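Can anyone check this?
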Amino acid sequence: MKIKAVLFDIDGTLVDSNDEHVAAWQTVFRDAGAHFTDQQLHDQIGKGTDMLVPTLLPDADPAQVEKMGTLHGEIFKTRYLEGITPFREARALIEKVAESGRQVVLASSASASERDHYLDLLNIRAFVALSTTSDDVEKTKPAPDIFSVALRRLAPLTANDVLVVGDTPYDVEAAVKCGIGAVAVRSGKFGDDALSGAGALAIYDDVAALLHDFEHSPLNR
């Protein structure tokens, strides 16, 4: 069965932003009196605030979680967003998928405002059929909501008609919960064991490698 749509994560997949998210979260947690290593924080990147903060601070109440998420967003946007750069060949892969007749979907735990910034940064508005963000769902990855919403909007396509491309085990886990296959990239700095353990169909170094192997990759199924 031909793949008819590809759902792309953004942070760590299309743009090199995971380290900057770690730095922003470091400030947020320090302000809250909590201290974690960069690796501990990195291991949670890919989750939205609703999933990330309770994992590290199980006793945080909803108001504190929301406050920390708002602060993270402000810090990331004011200190780091303008310096984020696309990964090599990210736009070319998006263009390739669109020109192959498949729909391009952005499905990210980022906010809608960050999504809009990246659409312009990557210059891919002409290729993107639709998108979902943390603003569209109650729960972010690894909950399946972001991909579930995208799948509903893609109707009559089904889970068998689409694939996810992401850089974290949370992308893969969320896809699997929806019955969607997932291709992982190492650009988010997660190990192969974590990615394959979550259920990735294939793992590539980055989107440039995926583009280079497009004809033989799961995307061209």
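Reply from J.R.: I decoded it. Strands lie at 5-8, 103-107, 128-132, 162-166, 181-185, 202-204.
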